[in-house]
DNA sequence: CTGTATCCTCGGGGATACTG
DNA sequence: CAGTATCCCCGAGGATACAG
């Protein structure tokens, strides 16, 4: 989500000697939030959980998302090492997106949150 | 974060008979994301995890946040049943914010995500 | 089919000043 | 101390058209 955080120090503790990079994080959760903070990120993660999907497949799975936004989010997730992009140079183009091991571990870490939402927010 | 989602149906499954409310969610994760989607929400949750805090205390704990934004987020978290606001009618005013049981359960569900972020994003 | 290229909207968030 | 009240910016996200 490209939030550039102010020098928030919640968990305080020892200071990070050398600030990792501009827009540094300060605790695990907001670091993770930066990765999954896009409007459709978690939905993409979820959609990719069971098996790889092609671009058009994803678009159809996420009604309402535009090509531009889907591309943007996929590129960011790819840059973060969450999803893997496999392009087969044929005509018509054939591209498959899948979760990397890191992406799978993220999805696992997301599960409790999903359970929480299902139990406490949904089924009102 | 007040995103009004399009009719996304990732987890498919049976359809929600009666749509819960405008801006409905469709799986636990994005339902949860709606609750913690503010820029400072998870930081507030984190700050409140160990013990209640007063308004000014929170503001000092979250360097960079403004009164307006802190108030907005606290009001939203309160509306979502995540934080509890206890005002003591004295002068000067004394107000304490704390996590509700629901808030504590949310924080627990957030923990794995925090671990993930700490392990895979931080300490680059 | 899988994307680019443009342009634009909109509201979350920030800055600042003020009040009970 | 604990907030309101205003005004405003900016960029993520959307709409649309086009391309290899």
TrEMBL record, chains A, B:
Superkingdom of origin: Bacteria
Keyword Acetylation: no
Molecular function in Gene Ontology: DNA binding
InterPro entries: ArsR-like_HTH (IPR011991), HTH_HxlR (IPR002577), WH-like_DNA-bd_sf (IPR036388), WH_DNA-bd_sf (IPR036390)
Key words, A-Z: DNA-binding, Transcription, Transcription regulation
Domain HTH hxlR-type: 27-124
Name listed for the protein in its UniProt record: Transcriptional regulator
């Amino acid at each position: 989500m490209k939030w550039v955080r102010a020098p928030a120090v919640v968990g305080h503790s020892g200071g990070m000697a050398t600030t990792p990079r501009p827009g540094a994080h300060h605790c695990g959760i907001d670091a993770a939030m930066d990765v999954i903070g896009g409007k459709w990120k978690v939905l993409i993660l979820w959609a990719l959980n069971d098996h790889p999907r092609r671009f058009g497949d994803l678009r159809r799975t996420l009604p309402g998302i535009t090509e531009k936004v889907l591309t943007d989010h996929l590129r960011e997730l790819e840059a973060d090492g969450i999803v893997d992009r496999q392009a087969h140079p044929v005509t018509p183009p054939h591209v498959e997106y899948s979760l990397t091991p890191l992406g799978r571990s993220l999805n696992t870490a997301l599960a409790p949150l999903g359970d929480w939402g299902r139990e406490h927010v949904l089924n009102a």
